[in-house]
Amino acid sequence: MTCSELPCLSMALYLISLHIISSNSRTSQHWRLNFDEGKVVQADSDITDVQENMAQENKNRFAERDTVLDILTIKHGINGEGEWILDMERQCRDCHKTSASQSQGSSREPSRRPKPAKSGTKNQDKPVDCGRPVNYTQVDHLLGIAERRKHPHIPEPEVALILKEKGSRSPEIDMKELEKKLRKAKREQPKSVHVYNQIGNYWRIKGNTQLSIECFRKALSIVPSSADVLLNLARVLFNLQYMEDAIFLTQRSLDMQTSDQNSWLQHFTLGEIFKSKGHFHDATFHFRHTLDLNPGFQPAQAHLREMELNPDGTVTYYTLFIILFLVLGVLVGILTSIDTSFDEYGDLSKTQRHFNRAMAMRSIRLGINQKLTRMRRYNC
What pTM did the predictor assign? Predict the structure, then answer.
């Protein structure tokens, strides 16, 4: 039986559509991945069971996933002290439903929480700081900077002279008023190196070493060549007995000084550091240079007078060592000469004994009486 091309094509499409419509999803074959066997296997006939099995396997895989992958995929942030923190909280499908239901239940109850305070009051209650710590500066390789969270709190009340306003006759400084001024300056100039430097000095007076170092680090992250910030950071590490770090920062501050700036404070700081290390010669050099740049500076004069009364300890030690070495050399020479003389005397005595024995044997052979020979020798 023959048919034209168009009726045959229509009949084929009709049969295919009828087959698709009449097919039942429950009788079709389903396949799934078996994680235990590591291959694709035929699923159960019921699609609901297949979905439940797949959901259970996914749940088991989620519970047994690698902890390293969790660390790489979880959220992270920075706490108030500038340290990295990880959010180890795992999420699941049911947790969202539970939290949503709890939020709906709590929304029905009347809120008893106090109203938040105004932003201005909150900022006034919070101590003035330099914000979030920076990640890196050019001085982070120093040991004193790397261990900044381990430092004790050492107040430096003498720093108040730096923050004291010119023309003020009062020997004391109002810390509350200073804090207000610093907070206002930070609000007006949020990226000012001078403001961060002053806040760091403020925390030096208060004795919070870590906050002062963080403020100086933030200032150096903006201007790494700031001579004042480098010097203040050097003073902090000097008080913490990080001598090498303090020398490095002070010398760098001295190098960053321009020709029109007076560097007497850098030389005075180097003098104090070298004096504390016992290098009186270098300390004297820097103290004298300080007086050349700032004549009449009494602390430098006091250090020079103290070192004149107490001579350089290193020179004394070297002198004692040289004297002791010379005494030991003389003793060794004397002992050696005594041993040599004893050896020569022993050889001479042996030679004399051999000579006397030979003469006695000769006398016996010749028949000479030794007593008569001795008497003749004495009479002569």
Answer: 0.55
